[in-house]
Write a structure and sequence with these properties.
By secondary structure, the chain is α+β, with helices and mostly antiparallel strands. 19% of the residues lie in helices and 39% in strands. It has a 16-stranded antiparallel barrel with strand order 18-19-20-21-22-23-24-25-26-27-28-31-32-33-34-35. Strands 1, 2, 3, 4, 7, 8, 9, 10, 11 and 12 form a 10-stranded mixed beta sheet that branches.
Length: 754
């Protein structure tokens, strides 16, 4: 269709079952007395047969059964003239309405990693180095905002950003359509107005946005805002929208009910179960009322989905098969709606196949941005006006823009006007920004008297200017007491070159050991300030140079008489180079990470000594099914310091010679390597984290003093057995480390252990 895109139109109806009444002068074709199928030239049904309306109910993962039923309808040569869907039924129905066949849909659904779709953590490969650096600090998953003098949170546990990308990919072939009557099969999606409780029926707009609103389960997903209305799952008012299909012009209805039954009394044994039952009672009630309106000529299909829960998307294949069985059991009734094979083939042909070929892009319109500079977004996109682009390339750009972390949703429509063919991109900025807070908690114990905690907070003020400058503040209390502030300022629209002035102060407890015996404990305080200039020309590299001044003071807390105090100023030039392609920094399955840090201290910059330092680390992960092998090496050298300096390098602790106590070994030269094997034992719901792992590590390395040569015979060996959990609060470890002799340690960690 050509012409300017219209804003999504919605039609209201009360939950009591009244027919929708149009908000605007335009109304559904059936309301004008003309069946929608007659008014739509793209799909004129044969006059000799009844017009079939397919009603697909909501039920979360149980709704995958709809695909199996569609497969059987195609086998029986039953054409569909209208589709009305709610929640998961709107997703399946909306995609089928684009012309995709049931078998193609099944293949797509079974290929999707659903645990990833419902995990808010965006693919680290698409994150900028700035955001990757953020993700290397374990903080709680929820993100708070401060706006209009109040603390705000996302309204749903899951933002649904990855689901948005998937829906866009599935519906992009019809993204130019503004009316759902002009889809290959006329379609309606049902949602609920969260403010008024009214039913909202979508008959035009962004198809991906409409079905996303229809399945936004309150509390689980963020609501979708369209035309100023806050919309959630349509199942609250019409889980099986039979009346909507009739309003469209259906003469016979095939209604599919995949809703969950109410729980038995013995299942109501938790607060979550009671709350879930309260919602399900209402959904079950309105579904039963809709199903009661079916006539003798209509067909009702209720698949036996057994124990498949509404959130068990990993059981999609089982649900599809259950749908097939249920439809075949109703084959006699469904066959009454069949047409000859040639006629059905002609109908399928009239739907066309979703067009996914490359097309020329003449313009890109960006709307909805308030804080974010649209020119920065244009610069970040690889798709440019004048290019020949595919839907896959557009999806890549959407992933890249979502990974910036500025948006709740991005909606895209292919449009045509006097300028030619283009994209209209509508951005929804996070309503709880631009002041963001995240919190974290760290706990650790080696069960040998060394236990600690840390509570951390990070504040980020985004978009302080049109180039995307950020003010960052961090604070922590506990074993590490720290206050830190920086300004991160890109110097170009591509955000590749930046400057970063920073300053801070921190205090920590430093232990000194003689063998496994702690012989001294120091309170060390460092105050520092610096400036860096960096280049992030690729989203996996960051190279920076700068200058830094610091003063380090250390006072003995528990120590032998005569132990020295330290008061050391130092300043110098800094260098850092980082490569980060890890898919998960704490529990990686593939990718690599490398970092080099250097300090060239100079008396001219305030240093009391010409202390130089260089440290390197390199890691690589390989995935083999549910197993991962992680290899890593570390090396470092500190020059022009004495052997007792607190600035020396350390080894010891979990995964850093695990049999030794944390930081037990101290010296001016370091070499270390490890191989870590882990097996993903169990997947966790995304709201709780990622997964549960078991594994083991083998480690080798040592530190040497100034006058010691680095020799192979001095290398220490160690290993560990562990259980790890990728939680929403950070990595959690229970581990046992062993080294030769009496060197062994138990560990509990919540937070980063290495």
């Amino acid at each position: 269709m050509t012409g300017m895109a219209q804003s999504p139109a919605v039609l209201n109806a009360s939950a009591a079952g009244h027919s929708p009444q149009g908000e605007r002068a335009t109304a559904l074709p059936a309301e004008r007395g003309v069946p929608a199928a007659v008014a739509t030239a793209s799909n004129p049904p044969p006059a000799a047969r009844l017009r079939v309306g397919l009603v697909l109910g909501g039920g979360g993962a149980r709704g995958m059964a709809h695909i199996g039923i569609l497969k059987v309808l195609e086998e029986l040569h039953v054409p569909v003239d209208f589709i009305a869907g709610t929640s998961m039924g709107s997703i399946v129905g909306g995609v089928y309405a684009t012309g995709m066949s049931a078998s193609d849909m099944e293949a797509r659904v079974l290929a999707v990693d659903w645990s990833d779709v419902f995990d808010d953590r965006l693919d680290r490969a698409n994150l900028s180095m700035r955001r990757k650096d953020d993700s290397r600090t374990p903080l709680f998953r929820p993100e708070f905002g401060f706006r209009n003098s109040t603390v705000q949170l996302p309204i749903g546990a899951i933002s649904g950003r990855k689901l948005d990308l998937l829906l866009h990919e599935l519906t992009v072939p019809v993204a130019r359509q503004t009316s759902f009557d002009e889809l290959p099969i006329p379609f309606r999606a049902i949602a609920t107005d969260l403010v008024t409780g009214e039913m909202v029926v979508f008959n035009n707009g962004y198809l991906s946005q409409a079905v996303r609103a229809s399945m936004s389960v309150p509390g689980a997903f963020d609501p979708v805002e369209i035309d100023g209305r806050l919309l959630v799952d349509g199942g609250l008012v019409r889980n099986v929208p039979v009346d909507i299909a009739r309003t469209m012009g259906a003469q016979v209805v095939i209604a599919i009910d995949v809703g969950s039954p109410n729980m038995e009394r013995n299942q109501l044994n938790s607060l979550g179960a009671v709350l879930g039952q309260m919602v399900n009672i209402n959904i079950r009630k309105n579904a039963d009322e809709s199903l009661a309106s079916l006539s003798a000529s209509d067909v009702r299909i209720t698949p036996d989905l057994g124990t498949i829960g509404s959130s068990e998307f990993t059981r999609a294949k089982e649900a599809i098969e259950a749908g097939e069985r249920a439809a075949r059991a109703m084959a006699a009734e469904l066959s009454k709606l069949s047409v000859p094979a040639s006629q059905f083939a002609a109908w399928r042909e009239s739907l066309g196949r979703p067009e996914r070929a490359a097309r020329r892009l003449d313009f890109i319109d960006i709307t909805g941005t308030d804080r974010v500079n649209p020119e920065v977004l244009r610069s970040a996109m690889r798709t440019k006006p004048g290019d020949m682009v595919t839907s896959a390339e557009i999806k890549d750009d959407l992933e890249r823009l979502q990974a910036r972390g500025d948006f709740e949703a991005i909606d895209v429509r292919n449009v045509e006007d006097e300028r030619g063919a283009g994209l209209r991109m509508k951005f929804t900025e996070k309503r709880w920004g631009p002041n963001f807070f995240k919190f974290g908690l760290g706990l650790s114990s080696d069960y040998q008297g060394d236990a600690s905690y840390e509570f951390a907070m990070r504040y980020t003020r985004t978009w302080v200017n049109q180039l995307g400058g950020e003010i960052r503040g961090e604070a922590s209390v506990g074993r590490l007491r720290r206050a830190y502030a920086e300004l991160y300022q890109p110097l170009d629209l591509d955000s590749t070159i930046y400057v970063k002035p920073y300053f801070g102060v921190q205090r920590k407890t430093v232990n000194l050991f003689d063998g496994r015996q702690r012989v001294a404990q120091y309170d060390q305080e460092d105050a520092f300030a610096g400036f860096a200039v960096g280049n992030q020309i690729f989203k996996w590299t960051d190279v920076s140079v700068g200058a830094r001044y610091a003063n380090s003071r250390a006072i003995p807390i528990i120590a032998p008489p005569g132990s020295p105090e330290y008061d050391t100023p130092y300043g110098g030039y800094t260098f850092r180079a980082v490569y980060d392609q890890m898919d998960n920094f704490f529990f990686p399955t593939e990718g690599g990470f490398a970092q080099i840090d250097g300090l060239l201290a100079r008396p001219s910059l305030g240093s009391s000594e010409s202390t130089n330092m260089v440290q390197t680390s390199l890691e690589r992960a390989w995935r083999i099914g549910r197993s991962t092998v992680l290899t890593g090496i570390n090396a470092g050298r500190v020059y022009n310091v004495d052997d007792n300096s607190l600035q020396n390098l350390t080894l010891g602790g979990l995964f850093r010679l695990s049999g030794y106590r944390t930081d037990q070994l101290r010296g001016t030269k370091l070499a270390f390597g490890r191989v870590l094997y882990s097996y993903r034992l169990e997947d966790l719901p995304s709201i709780l984290g990622g997964g549960v792992y078991v594994g083991a590590s083998l480690e080798a390395g040592n530190v040497w003093k100034n006058n010691q040569a680095m020799a192979l015979q001095d290398v220490n060996y160690s290993g560990a057995l562990f259980v790890g959990v990728d939680t929403a609060a950070g990595p959690l470890y229970f581990a046992w480390g062993k080294a030769p002799g009496d060197n062994s340690s138990l560990y509990f960690y919540l937070g980063r252990p290495f």
